[in-house]
Structure formats: structure tokens, C-alpha cells
Amino acid sequence: MLAAALLVPSALLAAGSPATAQTGASGASGCAPQGGLHFVCNLINVEDFLPVAGGRWLVGGSYQLGSAGLYLIDTRAKAAKPVALSLAAKPDPIYAGCAAPDLKRLSTHGLDVKLINGHITVFAINHGGRESVEIFRLHPATDTAEWIGCALPPEGMNGNAISAMAHGAFVMTKFMDSRDKDGFQHILAGKVTGAVFLWAPGKGFSEVPGTELAGDNGLLTSADGRWVYVNAWGSHEIYRVPLSGHGKRSVAKVDYCPDNLRWAPDGSILVTGQFLDAHTLNALHDWATVRLDPKTMVTTPLVKITGLKVFDGATTAVQVGQMLWFGTYHGDRAAYMPLPQP
């Protein structure tokens, strides 16, 4: 969920000093539309987000140490505010045995949202203070959320994206081994660095066979729990893999580094990522979103956007009504535009 692939700049952001609101470029003129995109500003590194309450809001992460933790973006008013976080009086016993985090030191990356017993539950990959999955019960009407539990991945796992499943289980991607100082270069070279891991209550983490890829990144699971869809960021591929480990995997190829995966209202998958390589890491990055048919694994182009100084390297896309929304691993804004018509 980067989707966003952990780029070198974003890895540095995650380890940096506590953030302050980025307001310099977000005044009335600084937040004006550019390049066919409109913006919601005064955010910090919203690398991933998802619709909640039927798309009334987007809940997003904040991928920098000591920043907001979670944001709510109002898709009608085109405005955003940080979520006020607190610790639940009674954490969920499913995730017992994991101590509460320092809510002022979060750095949230990939997200997922699942309605559990009538509650909007947010699963977040966290790099702030510890490598973890942090779980919150979100209340959009009051801009609040309660921490209800967590899980600590195996040592060395640099987590990226997460997909919640039934009965409290989830899968998450390992982008690379955090102990490998050359891990990012290995990904860019197309070498296997990661995998998908399943966490189940009472069982902990286990690796999903067939998911050893070059920079496992964006992640989805099918509604029936049979299939995992996962991006290989370094080799420009999207895989469909049986969660059981039994059966044939399928693959689709794109011409960019695919970051996050998100379901579209029509049942297709939105695949968003950046055009970059080892020689262009410090340049502005064009980016694209395609639609992926989850059954045939055929892609259809949707948008291709030139990188702007104010917004480049998009990591995720979600559709709300007739609008597309985009996040990025760095910067002070989220972007939106009308859904292109066929």
C-alpha cells in the first residue's frame, strides 16, 4: 500500500525528525490546479488512502515520523484534517500481546479498511518507533480513532502494504529486508527481496508461497479469500497468487513501477505507480494508473500524468463517484481529477 514502494527519499522521511505542517506551498496560489490536477493541501506524505462511509471521506496515512498518523479527507468539501488518536480502554483481544505504540511517533504507510462488527477498522503499516501493523477503530463523524491492537512482523521485515481479511486475519508485503543496506538497489535490478506474509489469530505470521518478488509492494485479496494480488515494484509486474499455495499464479506486465493496488467500483483493480529507474531517482517522476481485470489479468490504460514540482510520483489511486483521487509518498497534498471517459 508505498502502495507506495519505499523509495529512498521516503525511507529517509520515515526515519527523519518529527514533521511540521507543510504550509509554504499550500497558500491560495500554491494549491491552485496544475496539469489537469486539483489538490487538497496542508498534508504530509499521504502515500496511501481508502474511501470510508461510501466515499464520503478518504482515510489516509502520513508517511513521516511524528506526523499526523492518520488524515481524513472530505471528498465533498475538498478539505482535510488530522485524526485525533487515542488508546482504547479495552484493546481487541485478538491482537493481544503487543504493547501500545507512541501515538506521537507514528509513520504510517500502506493501509486497509474493513468493517468489523459495525466499526470502521483501519489497518496501517507503521515505521515510526517500531516496524508494526497498528489497528485503529475510526470514527469519521468526530475525526477520531482509537488504537485497538497491533502485530509485530518478523525481524528484518520492511513492511509496505496490507490487506485485511475475515476473522481478524490480514496479509502484508515485505518490500525488502531492512538489514540489507543494498536492498533498494537489488529491487531496482529486479532481484527477489520480499514476499507476502499472512497473519492469523493465534498463529502469527507465515510466508505465502509463490510471492517471492522484486520489491513486493501493493496488495489486495479477493473477496472469497482465495487470491492475493501483489505488485513486484522492481520488475514492473502484478501477480495473482493462490493464498493456499496450491494452484497456478498469473502475471500482468506494465511499463512503470507498480505501487499500490485499489479496487474500483466496477470490480477492476486500479494499479498506480511511477516511471523511474536507478538513474532518475532525484528527478521528477511521471506516473500512471491502469485498470487491471482481476480475472483475465489484462490491463487497460486509464491516466498517464507528467510529474509536477508540486505533485509527482503518485503511489495510489481510488475512485469516488466520477472522481479519481491520488496520493504520493512525499509532498504536502493529495490530488484529484474527473474520471476520464472512454
Low-confidence stretches: 1-25
Q: How many separate structural domains?
A: 1
Sheet with the most strands, sense and barrel status: 5 strands, mixed
CATH superfamily: TolB, C-terminal domain
Proper CATH architecture: 6 Propeller
Computed CA radius of gyration, to the nearest angstrom: 18 Å
**In which range does the helix fraction lie?**
under 10%
Order of helices and strands: HEEEEEEEEEEEEHEEEEEEEEEEEEE
How many beta-strand elements?
25
Side-by-side strand order of the widest sheet: 6-10-9-8-7
Structure overview:
The chain contains 2 helices and 25 strands. The chain is mostly beta strands and 342 residues long. It has a single domain, classed as Neuraminidase (6 Propeller), CATH 2.120.10.30. It has a 5-stranded mixed sheet with strand order 6-10-9-8-7, with no helix packed on it. Strands 1-25-24-23 form a 4-stranded antiparallel sheet, with no helix packed on it. Strand 2 (49-52) and strand 3 (57-61) form a beta hairpin.
